[in-house]
Amino acid sequence: MTRLLTRCFATAVDxxxxxxxxxxxxxxxxxxxxxxxELITDLFARPSEVELPETLPLASADESEQDSSANxxxxxxxxxxxxxxxxxxxxxxxxxxxxxxSPQGSEAILSMVERLRSLEVVSSLFWMDDTPPINLFALxxxxxxxxxxxDHQFDRARSRALSHPLIAGQLLSKDGRTLxxxxxxxxxxxxxxxxxxxxxxxxxxxxxxxxxxxDLKIQVAGRVPTTxxxxxxxxxxxxxxxxxxxxxxxxxxxxxxxxxxxxxxxAAPPVIGVYWALGSLPLLDLKDNPFNEIVTPVLIGMVxxxxxxxxFLDIRRLRTQGLSPADAAKRGIERVGLxxxxxxxxxxxxxxxxxxAQNEVVQEFxxxxxxxxxxxxxxxxxxxxxxxxxxxxxRIQLTSKENMIDRNLARIGPVIEWSIxxxxxxxxxxxxGTIALLLVSMQMQPDQKxxxxxxxxxxxxxxxxxxxxxxxxxxxxxxxxxxxxxxxDGSDEIREVIAAAQTLLDQEELIGSPVSLQRFIDVLPxxxxxxxxxxxxxxxxxxxxxxxxxxxxxxxxxxxxIRDVGIAAYAPVFKRIDEGLAKITEEHPGFSLQLSGxxxxxxxxxxxxxxDLVYSLGSASIIIFVVLTIAFRSIRLGLIAxxxxxxxxxxTGACFYWMGQSLxxxxxxxxxxxxGIAVDDTIHFLSRYREDARRMNEQDAIRSAFVSTGSALIxxxxxxxxxxxxxxxxGMREQRIFATITCLTIGSALFGDLLLLPPLLAWxxxxxxxxxxxxxxxx
Length: 779
Description:
The chain has 31 helices and 11 strands.
């Protein structure tokens, strides 16, 4: 393997012109991928994939019909396809006021609604004044009386609104101080999503300003504002953190290597590797990922920089010994090339194991990083030998003076000596401590929140918190009720089952504003529990009735909301509800009751987060162990490497558990990525130990490996931590979690390689003769 790598990458020295043209070609392809990837992707696409239809429909038939019906209704929304749909909206405008039911409050909100409906971008607007009357034959009174109404009329209207099942807790908070205006956009007139949201908010704010005495507060929530908040934060952070990371790395390179030529040679491969990776992702359709914008380039740059440092330091050391630039470059590839290849391979394996995850974002992130690591390795192994063999390489500072790290590395020497002398005790501490930390880290509980995707200062996040507090939740969910044909049409048992499900939800504090057909039966005239009561639902307007009860389809629903407090908080609640629904099903044969909705799906698949981590880490660990065993021709070295590679993950997991953190998708990605990074330093240490053990005894080989690689290990750790720590100031929680885990793991990996690996090698390692025999067999 060493000879093959040397033969392949020595071309950078022997054929510099060809290598330069190859590098130029890759850079050109990456540039096209960054600017206009279709120029390349269209060449490989099938004709049917690139041909455009003669006409492009602007909207589906259903959407056109809905929009036209909304326009015919004066921009009033909520009723589509003969069914009331209050959850189908693009923007939820939140209006807060101490007293909507007053002359001035009525005038302000009616004026705001009228102005919003006049906007071209607003297809429809649905609010509490659009709710149909509960009794089909009753006269419809305005929910919000006109400004000229009396105080008595306003009081009556407030009482009616707060007793209306579809208004209280749905469109109006139960204290009457928070009101929702649900807006559906006309996408034909929307040119810019951000501008549209700002336009709607400005109209509302300007209207509120005209009624300063009411102290109206305006917020926007919903699908569009939330999505735009995530995308805007991603766009703002992308360039900032990449440049911060590269700037910090360059600064460290200047401090550590001083000379301009040295800094340029070391820094060029990771920068070019990142550029190649970012240009290749659009060509592979992997660009639309929340991690790819910031975490991926920083991660690829840091991984490439570590290999760059190891290879450059070895070439510079050989130059100091008197070798020519070309010979030093070739010899450096021979000495360090295999270690760099193994580090890139194991990192790619760790990242590639994310492909086993069920989450699509995690899968694409893993594949993106694999592509980036491979391109980064190629850049390092071609550019550094190429540059070192040119005139630029002649300007490398060949000084015998120790750098700052080398001068302080000797202070750790006595600790290493002590650990080698007490190898049995230290090995026991290393193994026992790793197992203990691993058991602690396994206590972490998985959790998911929508707020985890939003920046801390995002207005959409504040709006979600307002809805959680005022309306009992933001995300809708349902209890789906179905019955077989054995159940007679109009049977009173249907009402009993619906009422039982409603009662079950009412008992749970975290369940917000549950509403079902039983709520409307309760407010209609007569005894709510009387037999034959289901027939009175004929008094309900069809859109209202069909939203909760569809006798033709033999189904009904109970709608409710959940707060964004984390799906883990709802796990016991959903479990109790599930058990209660199962009990109702047993008591009423022929009926089927089940929870449904996106929050329910997240709860049911919650264990998948843990399984993703276990599968990814487990498979990656096994493959890395096999790779190291084959590469070093030693099962013993493969087993020894498990402890220093597992320790940093166990340590970080235990720290997160002690800090009260949960296991999120970002953490799953970070732990798997860190396994691939943590093993890099171990490979460099073991490679040098194995080479030195050919000509010296075991303990001297350990000391020599420490002296030879210690400086590079510390340098790479400092650079990695500084580079990735730039993401800690991101406004996105998932990115901060990723950066925190990565920094903790990389830092503790250095501790494991310098303080735990030497005693493990001293206690479990082979003797000199055995290692020499293995090396001879390999040759």
